[in-house]
């Protein structure tokens, strides 16, 4: 069982931005659009780029959690206008306003394309559906992170709150903060993670001093067990360049310009934003 980290003293809620909670940066409103597993259709990418061109600085900005940010948006009393919010919603990338901050789900970018022990695309989609189906899970902090490693080890050392590591094509070991949880079937894994997320919300309490992360709880969450011997060794970040079935395209300074969006979107119907500020283009 992994020891709990020293619990910080929180005096406020996290300020991680969302569409409905923009950050007032020097150049205007900054919003984060969450992509489950970094996956985005070329249609939605082009549409979101259009929003950035019409209302913001013209570019999309990649994050270390495989999300997209828009900058320099106009704010009115600290909020986006209803017009801008509607434009973002029309891209299909804000499926639930109450869950704007809660859908932080990292997934091995090449899962289902090449390599790994299991295709986690359905697991990620099922987890997202479980989050969206529960109004209470919309209260997860904006910094709370799920990380799903498909067994190649690329997310094994990533700090996360809840997650899993695939052991084979049918089972995975849960991650609970820095510790490991029970081995579960992949079919049951998304509900197991959603249940742990509910336990976290119940344990953290409410108010400005409530923990942001699992590791900050006063007592361990869930049933923590020893690491399974079938766990992979930690793997390196996905390198840029050609891979079986895909190209990992580096995005200079993490900025998707309209020209680069047009180039990438013209090649495939679905792309994958990676946590290393790149884009996976299936080939």
TrEMBL record:
This is Nitrite reductase. It holds the Pfam family NIR_SIR_ferr. GO terms for molecular function: 4 iron, 4 sulfur cluster binding; metal ion binding; oxidoreductase activity. Keywords: 4Fe-4S, Heme, Iron, Iron-sulfur, Metal-binding, Oxidoreductase. Residues 30-76 form the Nitrite/Sulfite reductase ferredoxin-like domain.
